[in-house]
Amino acid sequence: MDFISIFSIPLGTFGTTEIVVIVILALLLFGGKKIPELMRGLGTGLKEFKKASEEEKDSESSESEKVKKEKK
Q1: Of 59, 1, 18, whose CA–CA distance to 67 is shortest?
Q2: Neighbours of 26 (CB within 10 A)
Q3: Is there a contact between 26 and 35 (Cβ–Cβ < 8 Å)?
Q4: Could you give the C-alpha distances from 17 to 49, 66, 68, in angstroms and in order?
Q5: What DSSP line would sit under 22-72, residue for residue?
Q6: Which of the four pLDDT bands, split at 50, 70 and 90, describes residue 45?
């Protein structure tokens, strides 16, 4: 038995019953009015993360092009 298999959690696919239970628990914990606000915040965070990662890729590619030009 290796180290990783000791701490791994077996996760299968989520069925309909599991999804319904999760949705009901979320409604009970946060209420119907708070969930859209939470999802909106999550969407905004994901959009900002994607934008930042794209900017990082662009800056890395422009830096690599500068290095290639300097070598020539």
Answers
A1: 59
A2: 14
A3: yes
A4: 32, 54, 55
A5: HHHHHHHHH-TTHHHHHHHHHHHHHHHHHHHHHHHHHHHHHHHHHHHHHH-
A6: very high
Q: Please state, as a whole number, how many other Cβ atoms lie within 10 Å of the Cβ of residue 30.
A: 13
Q: 65 near 58, Cβ under 8 Å?
A: no
Distance CA 39, CA 42 (A): 5
- What pTM value is reported for the model? 0.51
> To which residue do tokens 């900017």 refer?
55
| 29 neighbors 37 (Cβ within 8 angstroms) | no
Using CA atoms, how far apart are residues 35 and 24, in angstroms rounded to an integer? Answer: 12
Residue type (1 letter), 17? T
Euclidean distance between CA atoms 31 and 66, whole angstroms: 53
